[in-house]
Amino acid sequence: MTKCNGVLDPPSRKWISVLPPLSVLLVRPGIYIVLAVHVSGVGCSTSVMGPVTRRPVLVRAAAAAPTKKADQAAKRARQNEKRRMYHKSKKSEISTRMKKVFVALDGLKKRTDLSEDDIKPIESLIAEAFSIIDKAAKVGTLHANKAGHQKSRLSRAKRTLLIQNGLYTPSA
């Protein structure tokens, strides 16, 4: 049996119910026409009980609630915060690796008898720092020019130590 005993009032968004033999049609917001309703096992048919100058507008009894899209500004804020934290961690890792290299180089500056074997651990630290700097530049965390500048600082510090201890002589 089909239910035909009510109508949804759009302005107030309230359900107006009428007893089973009658139903209500919306002509204009706030103006309704009472109709006789004949309910059968298959469906509903209506007939107007009074004179109407206009053709009545049929209203669906059950309307699906519109789905709301996610707020784009909130989504952008979430994405930006996630990216900011990722980039911040990468920059922190770069500065930590660079500091390790500079601290190790400062420890070797105090020594007077340096050999090639003493430089090997420094070279591995520099290689790790270079790898992290290059990955950050590739992803976009660092600008390519800044990555080059940081790599140059590390290389220059190592080269200065080698020149001071006589392990490297620049050509020209």
Automatic annotation (TrEMBL):
Enumerate the Gene Ontology biological process terms: translation
User: What keywords does the record list, in alphabetical order?
Assistant: Ribonucleoprotein, Ribosomal protein, RNA-binding, rRNA-binding
Cite the SUPFAM superfamilies for this sequence.
Answer: Ribosomal protein S20
GO CC, alphabetical? small ribosomal subunit
Q: Which GO terms describe its molecular function?
A: small ribosomal subunit rRNA binding; structural constituent of ribosome
PANTHER family membership: 30S RIBOSOMAL PROTEIN S20, SMALL RIBOSOMAL SUBUNIT PROTEIN BS20C
- The identity of this protein, by name, is 30S ribosomal protein S20
